[in-house]
Amino acid sequence: MIRRSSMALSTGARLLLAKQGVVRLGRLHLKLVSMLAMAAAMTLANPVSAAADDGVPGPAEDPNIWLEDARSEKALDWVRAENERTLGLLAKDPRFEELKAEALAIYDSEDKIPFVSIRPDGLYNFWQDKANPRGLVRRTTLESYRAETPAWETVLDVDALAKAEGREWVYKGSTCMPPAQRLCMIALSDGGKDATILREFDMATKSFVEGGFTLENESQGGIEWLDQDTLLVSRDFGEGTLTDSEYPLSTRLWKRGTDIADAPELFRGETSDVWSAASLLRDGAGTVHGMTAFRAVSFHETEYYFQKDGEWLRLDIPLKASPYGIVDGHLLFSTDVDWETQGQTFPADSLVAVELEAFKADPNGAPKTLVWAPGDRQTKQGATITSDSLYVALLDNVRGKVVKFDFSDGAWTESAVELPENATIDIAASSDERDEVMFTVTDFLNPTRLFYLDGSTGSMEVLKTSPSYFDAAGMSVEQFEATSKDGTKIPYFVVKPKGMVLDGTNPALLTGYGGFQVPRLPSYLGSIGKLWLERGGVYILGNMRGGGEFGPMWHQSAIRENKQRTWDDFIAIAEDAIARKITSAKHLGIQGGSQGGLLVGTAMTQRPDLFGGVIVQIPLFDMLRYHLIGRGASWIGEYGDPRIPEQRAWIEGYSPYQKIVSGVDYPTPFLWASTADDRTHPAHARKGAAKLKALGQPYYYYEEMTGGHSGGVDNEQRAQLQALQFVYLLQRLAD
């Protein structure tokens, strides 16, 4: 996922979203984000049976627990049989091959934007197409990148590496030593799961370093470079080095030429943490200003530390606040809650600065000043730090803008970056060495454009424009508000094809997320436009509470005991769209993945009468055992702990797996997952399908054997998944 900077996301959101590529935090490069960028997880353990007295269903209550063993022969035989049945029903539809070909042409398009990261030796891109399904790491110059067809130099051929080693390698990004970024630790996943190995790579020689740093055990975790011969390593080091959520809790200092098993420990958290690690307080020039550490004590709460005189000093900041970056000699913090300190109150979602040298001398006593506070319905969306400035992407009533911050003449100044209005704007790349930034500007109907800003001159130019993948002529976008159960107004977007009549007969697809402070925003619909809108479908995007569209409180108002508000908001949007005769229950389908899979699962079980089709992608589904499956224990901060009776009561009210019961006519859902998904784990979708089958309810189930949490490792797999889903939608909603 993530091209935009994730600075505005919570610890938990970054854990959930981290997939591949490097997530940048400007100059700070906190260890947390370094590890998230590597996004690795251990090989899945065998399913754990709950203790008899914790109220969590065990084998006696749940006959499908055997499906939690991701790669048992019995489970895989079940998967193969389900795949064969689903492919027989969907892939034989005469529209399937056409839909797949259309999707694959978009994914393999050679004129799509090759997004880049800016490094001292050039612009780097990871590219996948028909000839390179696993991808190329390649680079070019800015001058060449401006050309219609840049001259690319291949740095690493992942297909060739996979063939040579007989492995299903998937590239998961790199962590490079600043400031030159010549030496990097490359992350490789076998089959697409989050778990990676790490190998040292020389970008100048375009080869792995002989006798260099290597970590061949698959693990969640990552590294940070202290210097050319020293790494900070946070991974699975064996017994006692993982949290209950199965993330690292220990960081070691590893010297070149020594055994990692002998590396001394720098920092250790607690097994009850979600994740713990040490990091470096480093600026964009590569200067290290000290050592930091964090303990993610829950999914949305983190303790931060600074090493002072050889001891770890906990920073006196809220659990929902975090360091944000180093700008103009200041260390910035962001807070998701009101922060009362030093006789002043900094509002939630604001930016707070402290002079870096004063912080190093007295981390908790140094004076703090306000840099920025959000206006009404504003929130930070992402940010990056160049050699000179801080650039923050904002959402203003779900519309994008970018603001530049500088410290000069003893005060912080704020200036707007001139970019198109009424669009979604992301920070795509930036330079540590120069004041250079790239932005993406997109909306539902207009192809994405990539802008380049030279901050030193103020010069702005459009570098690249995505091709038009579908005919948007005559199509329109409208924003409406639905009234949720408690009276809250919930916005949603509707993308309609030309000539559509409001008579309730239009096939419509409603999607959303509604969790972890992650916003769902307008973006070019690409394959959805081609496969769905061009065929007369309507696309609806909901902005429910629990997401990040309107800042931290929009999220915090719909978690744990209030999570039902997210489901209520989604149902309210469906009801509102039907009331406006945009569609009707018979023609309304819903789709969501991960937390979004839980969203559509709750909608299906709470209001089965409201939908004609349901696509449940890589979902959370069994919420009474979710803490025992995959990385589930890390998400207790979002949903609650089913082992605690009071909190189990919240979850029992909506857990889709338990809410599937006999005597109810469900709208024939299509559930799909990935065997290699070691984040939400395929057991959730498997068990949902198995329970529907036991009750004699119609359903579809499909599982990719590789691909991890993103669903596919190459464009062929991604195109097939898209075609299966849109055949299903056309059959259920349009035929």
Rg over C-alpha atoms, rounded to the nearest angstrom = 25 Å
Number of helices: 16
Quick check: average pLDDT? 91
Structural class given helices, strands, pairing?
alpha+beta
Distance between the termini: 34 Å
Strand order of the largest sheet: 32-33-35-34-36-37-38-39
Low-confidence stretches: 1-53
CATH fourth-tier homologous superfamily of the largest domain: Prolyl oligopeptidase, N-terminal domain
Characterization of this structure:
By secondary structure, the protein is of the alpha+beta class. It folds into 2 domains: 11-40 and 113-465, Prolyl oligopeptidase, N-terminal domain (Methylamine Dehydrogenase, Chain H, 7 Propeller); 72-105 and 469-734, Alpha/Beta hydrolase fold, catalytic domain (Rossmann fold, 3-Layer(aba) Sandwich). It is 20% helix and 32% strand. It has 16 helices and 39 strands. The chain has an 8-stranded mixed beta sheet, sandwiched between helices. Strands 5, 6, 7, 8 and 9 form a 5-stranded antiparallel beta sheet that branches. The longest helix has 20 residues, at 715-734. It is globular. The protein starts with 10 loop residues before the first helix and ends with a helix.
